[in-house]
Design brief:
heterodimer, A: about 210 residues, alpha+beta, Peroxisomal Thiolase, Chain A, domain 1, globular, B: about 80 residues, mainly alpha, 4 helices
Chain lengths: ~210, ~80
């Protein structure tokens, strides 16, 4: 791995807290993810009507990317074609798969909802983020038993070293019922060593991920 | 008819998760797609399911769909004409 890329920021949404670059930005006790997601949306005055139509995985990924990228102006520094997004989780789209199953399990009440069905793939969250931020680069969603910093670092390094991307959102976006956890990193190539910027490597990713 | 229009508006808001929208914000004469509420193709499918699930009505062709799903009023008219709601 060439040592020329950095983690220039991160956003975690878990334990009913929103943390960006080590700063606790929002905390709200909530009984379920839907209530917590709505509270984040209102608190940060986000205006994006399509948000309300997303499934919970989409909402979690969207909010994480929104807060991670706020005021970083990455669209001014990187072309959409060179900006990618690589995510992973363990539950895939199971949360929405179950909702879809509810709509089709009874033969006499067989009304599958198109709006639910379209989210029965985990990579749809990548599409939502790409549409919002105009990213056209590499997009990939991996399903793994648990967050795998080594795999993430190796995969992303390949993309960066081969000049496939110059900037990438990478991380873990997991939701199943009311259990949710998201940690997204902003990885940039050839960025200077300013305050708060750390080298992009597996150990650093792991350290940030484990800093609950 | 007015009661049906009001009911339809509420059902559309629920079915399409238009949680920032209130029934009074929806112009029953305005186009639902592109302009108006700016709905998309998935929303069109969702409205088709709504008509079938709540009113037992099927839209049989794309052409009919365009006419029926043009506005809240046209949906209400379709329900009224088929008299199953």
């Amino acid at each position: 791995m060439k040592k020329n890329s950095v983690i220039s920021g991160y956003c975690s949404i878990r334990n009913n807290k929103v943390v960006v670059d080590d700063k606790l930005l929002f905390e709200c006790p909530s009984e379920n993810f839907g209530g917590f997601a709505a509270a984040i949306y209102r608190h940060f005055s986000i205006s994006y009507p399509k948000f309300h139509k997303m499934d919970n995985l989409g909402k979690l990924g969207f909010l994480s990317a929104e807060l991670l990228l706020k005021e970083r102006n990455i669209n001014e520094r990187y072309s959409g074609e060179k900006t990618g997004i690589i995510l992973m989780n363990s539950a895939s789209s199971l949360d929405t798969d179950r909702r879809h199953q509810e709509t089709i399990k009874n033969r006499n009440e067989y009304f599958p909802s198109p709006a639910v069905f379209v989210y029965t793939l985990p990579n749809v969250v990548i599409g939502e983020i790409c549409i919002r931020h105009k990213f056209f680069g590499e997009g990939n969603f991996f399903v793994m038993e648990k967050f795998n910093p080594s795999f993430m670092a190796d995969y992303l390094s390949q993309l960066i070293d081969n000049n496939i991307v110059e900037c990438c959102i990478a991380g873990w976006v997991e939701i199943d019922g009311d259990n949710f956890e998201s940690v997204l990193f902003l990885v940039e190539k050839n960025r200077g060593t300013e305050t708060g910027i750390v080298n992009f490597e597996a150990a650093t990713i792991e350290l940030i991920y484990n800093s609950k | 008819m007015e009661e049906l229009v009001q009911k339809l508006k509420e059902e559309i808001i629920t079915a399409l998760n238009l949680s920032e929208m209130k029934p009074e914000n929806i112009d029953e004469k305005a186009p639902l797609f592109v302009d108006g509420l700016g709905l998309d193709s998935i929303d069109a499918l969702e409205l088709t399911v709504l008509l079938e699930k709540k009113y037992g009505l099927k839209i049989n062709t794309a052409e009919e769909g365009k006419k029926v799903l043009y506005s809240v009023n046209s949906m209400a008219e379709f329900i009224r004409e088929n008299n199953k709601g």
